[in-house]
Amino acid sequence: MSLDKSSVPRNPTARQMVEGMPLAFNREAAADLKAVIQFYFSGREPGIYHLVINSGDCTFHRGTALEPTLRINAPSEVWMQIANGELSGQDALLKGQYKVEGDTSLLLKMGELFKERHDFAIYDMSLPAKGPLFQVFRRSTISDGLTQAGKRPAGPLPLSGMAWMTLLFVPWTIFWILFDIKSVSPWLAAGIPLILMTLIVLYRIIYNRPVWPEIVSWAFFLAACLLGPVLGLTPFLAWGSVIGSLFMGLLWFVSLTPMVKLPFCAEYSKWGFIRKLWGNSMFIQPNMAISLVWGGEFIIASGFGVAARLLPEFFILFTVIRYGLMIPAAVFTSQYQKGVIDRKFADIDRTMSNLRAWGHVGMAIIIIMLVILFSWKIA
Q1: Dihedral through CA 94, CA 96, CA 102, CA 106, nearest 10?
Q2: Do 67 and 181 have their domain in common?
Q3: Which of 33, 314, 342, 344 has the highest CB neighbour count under 10 A?
Q4: Over the stretch 146-165, which tens digit does the pLDDT of each residue have?
Q5: pTM, whole model, 2 decimals?
Protein backbone atom coordinates (compact mmCIF):
# COMPACT_ATOMS: atom_id res chain seq x y z
CA MET A 1 0.00 0.00 0.00
CA SER A 2 1.34 3.41 -0.90
CA LEU A 3 0.23 6.79 0.40
CA ASP A 4 -0.27 10.00 -1.53
CA LYS A 5 2.49 12.59 -1.28
CA SER A 6 0.67 14.46 1.45
CA SER A 7 2.06 13.44 4.83
CA VAL A 8 -1.13 13.87 6.87
CA PRO A 9 -4.89 13.43 6.33
CA ARG A 10 -6.57 16.51 4.90
CA ASN A 11 -9.42 16.30 7.42
CA PRO A 12 -8.26 13.97 10.19
CA THR A 13 -10.54 12.54 12.84
CA ALA A 14 -9.70 13.09 16.50
CA ARG A 15 -8.34 9.53 16.62
CA GLN A 16 -6.13 10.14 13.58
CA MET A 17 -4.91 13.41 15.03
CA VAL A 18 -3.72 11.83 18.29
CA GLU A 19 -2.41 8.72 16.54
CA GLY A 20 -0.44 10.93 14.18
CA MET A 21 1.24 12.94 16.95
CA PRO A 22 4.12 10.44 17.36
CA LEU A 23 4.95 11.00 13.68
CA ALA A 24 5.80 14.63 14.45
CA PHE A 25 7.40 13.93 17.83
CA ASN A 26 10.47 16.09 18.54
CA ARG A 27 12.89 13.83 20.39
CA GLU A 28 15.36 16.69 20.87
CA ALA A 29 12.78 18.64 22.85
CA ALA A 30 11.89 15.55 24.87
CA ALA A 31 15.47 14.83 25.95
CA ASP A 32 15.16 12.30 28.82
CA LEU A 33 11.47 13.04 29.48
CA LYS A 34 9.27 10.18 30.69
CA ALA A 35 5.57 10.94 30.62
CA VAL A 36 2.12 9.64 29.73
CA ILE A 37 -0.44 12.02 28.19
CA GLN A 38 -4.00 10.77 28.55
CA PHE A 39 -6.80 12.05 26.30
CA TYR A 40 -10.47 11.72 27.19
CA PHE A 41 -12.53 12.95 24.24
CA SER A 42 -16.26 13.63 24.39
CA GLY A 43 -18.46 15.38 21.85
CA ARG A 44 -18.76 14.36 18.21
CA GLU A 45 -15.85 11.91 18.27
CA PRO A 46 -15.63 10.34 21.74
CA GLY A 47 -12.60 8.22 22.48
CA ILE A 48 -9.94 7.40 25.06
CA TYR A 49 -6.29 7.39 23.96
CA HIS A 50 -2.88 8.02 25.48
CA LEU A 51 0.66 8.76 24.38
CA VAL A 52 3.71 7.28 26.11
CA ILE A 53 6.93 9.30 25.98
CA ASN A 54 10.05 7.38 27.00
CA SER A 55 13.69 7.12 25.91
CA GLY A 56 13.28 9.79 23.27
CA ASP A 57 10.34 8.01 21.65
CA CYS A 58 6.58 8.48 21.59
CA THR A 59 3.96 5.78 21.01
CA PHE A 60 0.18 5.83 20.61
CA HIS A 61 -2.15 3.56 22.60
CA ARG A 62 -5.88 3.11 22.94
CA GLY A 63 -7.63 3.11 26.29
CA THR A 64 -6.71 4.38 29.74
CA ALA A 65 -3.16 4.43 31.07
CA LEU A 66 -2.46 3.21 34.60
CA GLU A 67 -0.62 6.30 35.83
CA PRO A 68 -0.94 9.19 33.35
CA THR A 69 1.29 12.21 33.90
CA LEU A 70 -1.24 14.55 32.31
CA ARG A 71 -4.98 14.06 31.78
CA ILE A 72 -6.79 16.08 29.14
CA ASN A 73 -10.60 16.07 29.16
CA ALA A 74 -12.00 17.83 26.11
CA PRO A 75 -14.77 17.76 23.52
CA SER A 76 -13.13 16.37 20.39
CA GLU A 77 -14.17 19.40 18.32
CA VAL A 78 -12.50 21.78 20.78
CA TRP A 79 -9.23 19.86 20.79
CA MET A 80 -9.27 19.61 17.01
CA GLN A 81 -9.61 23.39 16.78
CA ILE A 82 -6.63 23.76 19.11
CA ALA A 83 -4.60 21.24 17.11
CA ASN A 84 -5.42 23.05 13.86
CA GLY A 85 -4.42 26.42 15.30
CA GLU A 86 -7.98 27.73 15.07
CA LEU A 87 -8.26 28.18 18.84
CA SER A 88 -5.75 29.17 21.51
CA GLY A 89 -5.21 26.29 23.90
CA GLN A 90 -4.51 28.67 26.77
CA ASP A 91 -7.63 30.77 26.14
CA ALA A 92 -9.80 27.68 25.78
CA LEU A 93 -8.47 26.34 29.09
CA LEU A 94 -9.16 29.62 30.90
CA LYS A 95 -12.69 29.65 29.49
CA GLY A 96 -13.28 26.11 30.73
CA GLN A 97 -13.72 24.65 27.27
CA TYR A 98 -11.55 21.72 28.35
CA LYS A 99 -9.96 20.52 31.58
CA VAL A 100 -6.55 19.19 32.57
CA GLU A 101 -5.24 17.28 35.57
CA GLY A 102 -1.71 16.42 36.57
CA ASP A 103 1.51 18.01 35.36
CA THR A 104 0.29 21.16 33.60
CA SER A 105 3.87 22.11 32.70
CA LEU A 106 3.74 19.22 30.25
CA LEU A 107 0.73 20.83 28.60
CA LEU A 108 2.75 24.01 28.02
CA LYS A 109 5.56 21.94 26.51
CA MET A 110 3.37 20.06 24.03
CA GLY A 111 3.88 22.71 21.37
CA GLU A 112 7.59 21.93 21.34
CA LEU A 113 7.22 18.18 21.81
CA PHE A 114 4.96 17.82 18.79
CA LYS A 115 6.27 20.58 16.57
CA GLU A 116 6.50 19.34 13.00
CA ARG A 117 9.94 19.97 11.55
CA HIS A 118 10.43 21.55 8.14
CA ASP A 119 12.12 18.36 6.96
CA PHE A 120 9.42 16.06 8.36
CA ALA A 121 8.25 13.31 6.01
CA ILE A 122 6.57 9.94 6.30
CA TYR A 123 8.89 8.60 3.62
CA ASP A 124 12.16 6.85 4.39
CA MET A 125 14.58 7.09 1.49
CA SER A 126 17.58 5.72 3.39
CA LEU A 127 19.23 2.42 2.57
CA PRO A 128 18.85 -0.17 5.35
CA ALA A 129 21.89 -1.57 7.10
CA LYS A 130 22.87 -5.10 6.22
CA GLY A 131 21.76 -7.49 8.93
CA PRO A 132 24.05 -10.15 10.45
CA LEU A 133 24.15 -13.48 8.64
CA PHE A 134 21.30 -15.82 9.56
CA GLN A 135 19.71 -13.11 11.67
CA VAL A 136 16.31 -14.72 11.13
CA PHE A 137 17.39 -17.62 13.37
CA ARG A 138 18.82 -15.65 16.27
CA ARG A 139 18.55 -12.41 18.17
CA SER A 140 20.43 -9.53 16.64
CA THR A 141 22.65 -7.08 18.48
CA ILE A 142 21.65 -4.56 15.84
CA SER A 143 18.36 -2.83 16.54
CA ASP A 144 15.34 -3.93 14.56
CA GLY A 145 15.05 -0.40 13.24
CA LEU A 146 18.32 -0.74 11.32
CA THR A 147 17.46 -4.02 9.68
CA GLN A 148 13.81 -3.36 8.93
CA ALA A 149 13.66 0.17 7.51
CA GLY A 150 14.69 2.18 4.46
CA LYS A 151 13.44 2.71 0.95
CA ARG A 152 14.00 -0.95 0.06
CA PRO A 153 15.28 -4.22 1.55
CA ALA A 154 19.06 -4.43 1.84
CA GLY A 155 21.22 -6.14 -0.74
CA PRO A 156 22.80 -5.51 -4.14
CA LEU A 157 19.51 -5.96 -6.00
CA PRO A 158 17.82 -2.51 -6.15
CA LEU A 159 14.31 -3.92 -5.71
CA SER A 160 11.57 -2.11 -3.82
CA GLY A 161 9.45 -3.88 -1.25
CA MET A 162 6.54 -4.31 -3.67
CA ALA A 163 8.94 -5.65 -6.31
CA TRP A 164 9.92 -8.36 -3.83
CA MET A 165 6.26 -9.27 -3.41
CA THR A 166 5.95 -9.57 -7.19
CA LEU A 167 9.06 -11.77 -7.17
CA LEU A 168 7.44 -13.96 -4.51
CA PHE A 169 4.64 -14.77 -6.96
CA VAL A 170 7.05 -16.06 -9.64
CA PRO A 171 7.63 -19.51 -8.04
CA TRP A 172 3.96 -19.67 -7.08
CA THR A 173 2.81 -18.98 -10.63
CA ILE A 174 5.21 -21.60 -11.97
CA PHE A 175 3.84 -24.08 -9.42
CA TRP A 176 0.20 -23.40 -10.36
CA ILE A 177 0.82 -23.68 -14.08
CA LEU A 178 3.11 -26.73 -14.06
CA PHE A 179 0.84 -28.71 -11.76
CA ASP A 180 -2.01 -28.20 -14.24
CA ILE A 181 0.01 -29.69 -17.10
CA LYS A 182 -0.30 -33.48 -16.85
CA SER A 183 2.77 -34.13 -18.99
CA VAL A 184 5.03 -32.29 -16.50
CA SER A 185 6.69 -34.41 -13.84
CA PRO A 186 5.63 -33.64 -10.25
CA TRP A 187 9.33 -33.36 -9.47
CA LEU A 188 9.62 -30.40 -11.84
CA ALA A 189 6.28 -28.89 -10.83
CA ALA A 190 7.29 -28.79 -7.16
CA GLY A 191 11.08 -28.77 -7.49
CA ILE A 192 11.51 -25.68 -9.68
CA PRO A 193 9.44 -23.44 -7.35
CA LEU A 194 11.31 -24.86 -4.35
CA ILE A 195 14.68 -24.00 -5.90
CA LEU A 196 13.57 -20.46 -6.79
CA MET A 197 12.05 -19.89 -3.35
CA THR A 198 15.19 -21.21 -1.68
CA LEU A 199 17.28 -18.68 -3.60
CA ILE A 200 14.96 -15.84 -2.56
CA VAL A 201 14.99 -16.83 1.11
CA LEU A 202 18.77 -17.33 1.20
CA TYR A 203 19.35 -13.94 -0.41
CA ARG A 204 17.06 -12.27 2.12
CA ILE A 205 18.70 -14.06 5.03
CA ILE A 206 22.17 -13.03 3.92
CA TYR A 207 21.40 -9.38 3.29
CA ASN A 208 18.63 -8.63 5.76
CA ARG A 209 15.73 -10.77 6.87
CA PRO A 210 13.04 -12.66 4.93
CA VAL A 211 9.45 -11.81 5.79
CA TRP A 212 7.08 -14.51 6.96
CA PRO A 213 5.28 -15.01 3.57
CA GLU A 214 8.62 -15.97 2.03
CA ILE A 215 9.51 -18.46 4.76
CA VAL A 216 6.04 -20.04 4.73
CA SER A 217 6.08 -20.21 0.92
CA TRP A 218 9.40 -22.04 1.04
CA ALA A 219 7.96 -24.50 3.59
CA PHE A 220 4.94 -25.12 1.32
CA PHE A 221 7.08 -25.97 -1.70
CA LEU A 222 9.20 -28.29 0.43
CA ALA A 223 6.02 -30.00 1.63
CA ALA A 224 4.79 -30.15 -1.99
CA CYS A 225 7.91 -32.13 -2.94
CA LEU A 226 7.29 -34.55 -0.09
CA LEU A 227 3.54 -34.97 -0.65
CA GLY A 228 3.74 -35.17 -4.43
CA PRO A 229 6.76 -36.84 -6.00
CA VAL A 230 8.15 -38.47 -2.82
CA LEU A 231 5.02 -39.87 -1.16
CA GLY A 232 2.85 -39.84 -4.27
CA LEU A 233 -0.19 -38.63 -2.34
CA THR A 234 -3.01 -38.98 -4.88
CA PRO A 235 -5.16 -36.02 -3.75
CA PHE A 236 -2.16 -33.70 -3.88
CA LEU A 237 -1.10 -34.95 -7.32
CA ALA A 238 -4.65 -34.41 -8.57
CA TRP A 239 -5.35 -31.06 -6.97
CA GLY A 240 -1.86 -29.63 -6.39
CA SER A 241 -2.48 -26.42 -8.36
CA VAL A 242 -5.78 -25.70 -6.60
CA ILE A 243 -4.33 -26.62 -3.22
CA GLY A 244 -1.54 -24.13 -3.89
CA SER A 245 -4.07 -21.38 -4.67
CA LEU A 246 -6.03 -22.16 -1.51
CA PHE A 247 -2.86 -22.11 0.55
CA MET A 248 -1.93 -18.69 -0.86
CA GLY A 249 -5.43 -17.44 0.00
CA LEU A 250 -4.95 -18.82 3.50
CA LEU A 251 -1.77 -16.75 3.88
CA TRP A 252 -3.64 -13.55 3.01
CA PHE A 253 -6.38 -14.34 5.54
CA VAL A 254 -3.95 -15.42 8.27
CA SER A 255 -2.23 -12.05 7.90
CA LEU A 256 -5.42 -10.40 9.20
CA THR A 257 -5.18 -12.23 12.51
CA PRO A 258 -3.08 -11.37 15.59
CA MET A 259 -0.78 -14.27 14.70
CA VAL A 260 1.30 -11.89 12.57
CA LYS A 261 2.30 -8.27 13.09
CA LEU A 262 1.40 -6.88 9.67
CA PRO A 263 -1.03 -7.83 6.88
CA PHE A 264 0.50 -9.73 3.95
CA CYS A 265 0.96 -6.79 1.59
CA ALA A 266 2.07 -4.48 4.42
CA GLU A 267 5.17 -6.64 4.87
CA TYR A 268 6.26 -5.33 1.48
CA SER A 269 4.58 -1.93 1.16
CA LYS A 270 6.12 -0.80 4.47
CA TRP A 271 9.44 -0.19 2.71
CA GLY A 272 9.84 3.46 1.90
CA PHE A 273 7.91 4.64 4.96
CA ILE A 274 9.22 5.56 8.39
CA ARG A 275 8.83 2.84 11.01
CA LYS A 276 6.44 4.88 13.14
CA LEU A 277 3.87 4.71 10.35
CA TRP A 278 3.84 0.90 10.23
CA GLY A 279 1.62 0.61 13.30
CA ASN A 280 -0.64 3.53 12.36
CA SER A 281 -4.26 2.70 11.50
CA MET A 282 -3.93 4.78 8.31
CA PHE A 283 -1.37 2.22 7.15
CA ILE A 284 -2.80 -0.96 8.68
CA GLN A 285 -6.47 -0.64 7.67
CA PRO A 286 -5.92 -0.23 3.90
CA ASN A 287 -3.49 -3.15 3.89
CA MET A 288 -6.02 -5.26 5.78
CA ALA A 289 -8.74 -4.45 3.24
CA ILE A 290 -6.43 -5.23 0.33
CA SER A 291 -5.34 -8.50 1.95
CA LEU A 292 -8.98 -9.50 2.48
CA VAL A 293 -9.78 -8.90 -1.19
CA TRP A 294 -6.80 -10.94 -2.36
CA GLY A 295 -7.72 -13.78 -0.02
CA GLY A 296 -11.23 -13.78 -1.45
CA GLU A 297 -9.81 -13.69 -4.97
CA PHE A 298 -7.86 -16.88 -4.35
CA ILE A 299 -10.96 -18.65 -3.00
CA ILE A 300 -12.93 -17.81 -6.15
CA ALA A 301 -9.95 -18.64 -8.36
CA SER A 302 -9.64 -22.01 -6.65
CA GLY A 303 -13.28 -22.71 -7.47
CA PHE A 304 -12.58 -22.13 -11.15
CA GLY A 305 -9.50 -24.34 -10.80
CA VAL A 306 -11.71 -27.18 -9.55
CA ALA A 307 -14.19 -26.57 -12.38
CA ALA A 308 -11.37 -26.66 -14.96
CA ARG A 309 -10.23 -30.03 -13.60
CA LEU A 310 -13.73 -31.55 -13.54
CA LEU A 311 -14.81 -30.15 -16.91
CA PRO A 312 -11.81 -30.58 -19.20
CA GLU A 313 -13.76 -29.33 -22.22
CA PHE A 314 -13.86 -25.92 -20.52
CA PHE A 315 -10.32 -26.13 -19.12
CA ILE A 316 -8.92 -23.20 -21.11
CA LEU A 317 -11.92 -20.95 -20.40
CA PHE A 318 -11.95 -21.62 -16.65
CA THR A 319 -8.16 -21.32 -16.43
CA VAL A 320 -8.23 -17.92 -18.16
CA ILE A 321 -10.93 -16.76 -15.74
CA ARG A 322 -8.98 -18.20 -12.81
CA TYR A 323 -5.88 -16.16 -13.48
CA GLY A 324 -7.79 -13.23 -14.95
CA LEU A 325 -9.40 -12.66 -11.54
CA MET A 326 -6.08 -11.16 -10.45
CA ILE A 327 -6.80 -8.14 -12.65
CA PRO A 328 -9.82 -6.80 -10.69
CA ALA A 329 -7.97 -7.54 -7.44
CA ALA A 330 -5.01 -5.52 -8.70
CA VAL A 331 -7.31 -2.69 -9.80
CA PHE A 332 -8.91 -2.62 -6.35
CA THR A 333 -5.47 -2.51 -4.76
CA SER A 334 -4.49 0.45 -6.93
CA GLN A 335 -7.70 2.42 -6.42
CA TYR A 336 -8.32 1.73 -2.73
CA GLN A 337 -4.94 3.01 -1.60
CA LYS A 338 -5.43 6.33 -3.40
CA GLY A 339 -8.12 7.54 -1.01
CA VAL A 340 -6.30 6.73 2.22
CA ILE A 341 -5.72 10.29 3.42
CA ASP A 342 -9.35 11.29 2.84
CA ARG A 343 -11.01 8.15 4.17
CA LYS A 344 -12.75 8.42 7.53
CA PHE A 345 -14.25 5.78 9.80
CA ALA A 346 -16.52 6.48 12.73
CA ASP A 347 -14.75 3.67 14.57
CA ILE A 348 -11.53 2.54 12.86
CA ASP A 349 -10.93 -0.15 15.49
CA ARG A 350 -14.33 -1.71 14.82
CA THR A 351 -13.63 -1.52 11.09
CA MET A 352 -10.37 -3.42 11.52
CA SER A 353 -12.08 -5.89 13.86
CA ASN A 354 -14.68 -6.57 11.15
CA LEU A 355 -11.91 -7.15 8.62
CA ARG A 356 -10.31 -9.66 10.99
CA ALA A 357 -13.68 -11.39 11.41
CA TRP A 358 -14.05 -11.75 7.65
CA GLY A 359 -10.50 -13.06 7.57
CA HIS A 360 -11.50 -15.82 9.98
CA VAL A 361 -14.50 -16.64 7.76
CA GLY A 362 -12.18 -16.90 4.77
CA MET A 363 -9.82 -19.18 6.70
CA ALA A 364 -12.73 -21.47 7.63
CA ILE A 365 -13.90 -21.66 3.99
CA ILE A 366 -10.41 -22.56 2.78
CA ILE A 367 -9.91 -25.23 5.44
CA ILE A 368 -13.25 -26.83 4.47
CA MET A 369 -12.27 -26.74 0.79
CA LEU A 370 -8.89 -28.32 1.55
CA VAL A 371 -10.52 -31.11 3.57
CA ILE A 372 -12.89 -31.82 0.67
CA LEU A 373 -10.06 -31.90 -1.88
CA PHE A 374 -7.89 -34.22 0.18
CA SER A 375 -10.81 -36.62 0.67
CA TRP A 376 -12.14 -36.39 -2.92
CA LYS A 377 -11.29 -39.42 -5.01
CA ILE A 378 -10.84 -38.47 -8.65
CA ALA A 379 -9.48 -40.42 -11.53
Answers
A1: -50
A2: no
A3: 33
A4: 446 788 888 889 999 999 99
A5: 0.85
